Amino acid sequence: MSFSYCCMAHKWPAGDSTRFYDFKVQTMKVNKLCNTKEIVTINKMFPGPIVYAQEDDRIIVKVTNKTPYNATIHWHGVRQKLSCWFDGPSYITQCPIQAGASFTYEFTLVQQKGTFFWHAHVSWLRATVYGAIVVYPKTEVPYPFEHPYEEHIVILGEYWLRDVVQLEREVLASGGAAPPADAFTINSHPGPNYNCSQNDVYKIDVVPGKTYLLRLINAGLNMENFFAIAYHKLTIVEADAEYTKPFTTDRVMLGPGQTMNVLVTANQPIGKYSMAMGPYMSAQNISFQNISAIAYFQYLGAVPNSISLPAKLPSFNDNLAAKTVMDGLRSLNPVNVPKEIDTELFVTVGLNVNKCRSKTPRNNCRGMNNGTFAASMNNISFVMPTVSILEAYYKKIGGQFTVDFPGAPLRFYDFVNGAPNNAPNNTQAINGTRTKVLKFGSKVQLIFQDTSTVTTENHPIHLHGYSFYVVGYGTGNYNPHTANFNLIDPPYMNTIGVPVGGWAAIRFVADNPGVWFMHCHLEIHQSWGLGAVLIVENGEGELETLPHPPVDLPRC
What we know:
Blueprint: E1 18-32, E2 35-42, E3 51-54, E4 58-65, E5 73-76, E6 102-108, E7 114-120, E8 130-136, E9 150-159, H1 164-174, E10 183-186, E11 203-206, E12 211-218, E13 224-229, E14 234-239, E15 242-249, E16 251-254, E17 259-265, E18 272-280, E19 293-299, H2 319-327, E20 343-354, H3 361-364, E21 372-377, E22 380-382, H4 389-394, E23 430-432, E24 435-438, E25 443-450, E26 459-463, E27 468-475, E28 492-493, E29 495-498, E30 502-509, E31 514-520, H5 523-528, E32 531-536
Parallel strand pairs: 1-4, 3-8, 9-12, 11-19, 20-25, 22-23, 24-32
Antiparallel strand pairs: 1-2, 4-6, 5-7, 7-8, 9-10, 12-17, 13-16, 13-18, 14-15, 14-17, 18-19, 20-21, 25-30, 26-29, 26-31, 27-28, 27-30, 31-32
């Protein structure tokens, strides 16, 4: 059995130990969709190497860049307690690792277990630079559900025939929308619906009657996705690396940056069943890839070349299907949600159209009504600085960022139904590298509100350095008098899909000092400026103070 994204032995690694990994950023040739091209990978593996660990282990990864591109690695969902220097987003916590250079990431998985993933966090390189992180419970600690017969990692991705670094440059220069991916992939395989991909299919061989744990990861760039297995129920037992009450459903929806563990029992007649990944596109008038990626869930004893039974996916704009999944997520046990809130933030998330400033509008102003697309939080489009914000903050280097990110929109209006929409008039964003400073230990409530400028859309918002309780969400404009909150067993997540034309409320205690990026995980929106930075100040003692920077921190 190959060590690819398949099965793990039942020997769990022992806890509190240190695990070393050697990551080389390298290009490799791949042949997909009738085309051969070079892609950037780690260790010439696509998907990249799996990081295996146990709760409370220390991880040390030396990353050496053997490509001409800038590189960084973000450990998505790892809370980086007192290790902000190793979080990985370029120009936020570090300068990129330049061609020929290396940087060693060191962090501890403090009280964390479950399915995470790592990905590049510079330009659009994470299209191919990604891999799973699997963190087991401590020795002798069982899962809170029946132990599965086998586990499999299932990474949803998007594949471009174009060079993605150049593609990002061109899209941003054009002022217009991003082209759809050339294929969806499951563990890098597009499956039989695509050209030249009849044999480019991921497959899980299953034993009738056995139960399997699938660790689902959405590593896609610009698309949210539905996932289903033909004629099989999925039972969600973990979301964003935190246990949930078991919730059984026909399909799940994952936005980029989200992970989910599901149990599947092979309880159907012997056969070959499709595992399907298709689009969830909640925005209006956006072109997207609508061909499903297919993998096989194949019973032992099935006729090998038989046609696989098709999976039923919701239609691409089925907002209710996405909501149903979210409605089912509850923390496994009652949780300690912050009740006395001392810092309240209200943040609009959405798109903008800026006026054309180019002398060649046909080339550079391909957004709505000859404007250029942008995206923002509280109508401020985030601009990356030239040195990392963390370094500028720590070393008191001036001129790189300001501390005036507003705690509420500059003006309130009917965000969902009455947003300005005669682009590019009144649809502009203000550019800035603005941060919001939080006192150590403050209890934060953050309301994300979707707006309808250009279009409403489900935005998967990711907060680095923290997980947060999703205490509420709904459609329309947030109204504190009518909003229903769950303060008993809300899910504890790191990436929340803010509902299309709606809002989401999260709570967390700011107890991890550092500089933490908060952004939409749709890469095009992040490139357009849909992000902001939270700076959490040091607390009192050594365990509340960010250590000094590592000696090999890359220079800009």
